[in-house]
Predict the structure.
Amino acid sequence: MSKKRKAVRIALSILAAIAIWLYVDLVRQPSVPMKGKDIPVEFAGESTTLADKGLMLLSGYDTTIDLTLKGPRRQLWQIDKNDIRIVVDTSTITEVGSQSLTYQVVYPDGVSKNSISVDWASAYRVTVTVGELYSTEVPIQCEVVGTPKKGFYAEEPILDIDKVLLHGQRDDLVNISYAKLTVDISDTDKSYENAVGFTLYDYNDIAVDNSAIRPAVKLVQVKVPVKTTKEVPLEIVVKESAGSTLEQTSYTISPKSVTLAGEKDVLDAISSIALDTVYLQDISQAQTLYYEIIPPENTELVGDNQSATVTFTVTGVTEKTVTVNQFIVERVREGFRGQCTTESIQVTIRGLTDEIAAITCLLYTSPSPRDISG
């Protein structure tokens, strides 16, 4: 047999083996095992249906189970072992004492439970102890340790709840005084915000580690604002017009700046505080305007400067009121004649003193023809 024919036969054998494997796996779909270890047991209705009956689990709630599942390879490939759930329905519990409960294995969405079976389990029922439910609320204390970076300071912590509801037996709950959590802000320049676990303490300030006490929540959302200060100038936005420019107008702002307190990223975006937009044509020879200083959002003013004054001084500019009694009607439509019936009007003009003094009369020009009806 030539080497070429031998190679062809080997290749054909490999293809045949692959075809047989695909036929068995895809068509016949033989069952294969998959193991899951230490799967925690969930108790449906524990905080609702069971609690409404005045009952609670005293033991068994920390049970874990090992499983061996069996099913088609394609189905098992779709399952992440961490997504397998074991759920016990507590709605059938009606009295205190020891209870033996069945459970249900819940698979991820998209997995056909009819094609998968439990081939082996470390336990087929879950044993729990049921007792009477007692509840109490205790205050939450937040201890802040450490100091932020130089130039920064921490404000009082903010908790999303100030009390925590505890469930348990009366004898276990009677000695609980408060819950405490700890936050470390050492050498930080940013506000601390996180969900933090807490520890229960008795009336002698001794930590209590009792798994029979069941808090309604395990984490508390905490924010410790860490702020700094920044000096920012006050300013006004000036709008000029003919005869009213910054060449003839000067102004002063008192105070020139203020100190803001806030979080670093907020203050970094602030370069100044605008008090107002001022049109110079509205400013007389000397005028003082008063403003309340409004700090930008999420900041606050530091110190006593809560208001500011802006003093304007105008030089080389004057105003003059003249009577206009000469009128010209221009660009009258063909076939019409325009005539002004107003005998005179009072006009106030503003500009440089020398130029205003040189004006002895004004000539008024009528509006454009489109505004003249005939």
Q: What stands out?
A: The chain has six helices and 29 strands. The chain has a mean pLDDT of 86. The first strand starts at residue 31 and ends at 44. The first helix runs from residue 3 to 28.
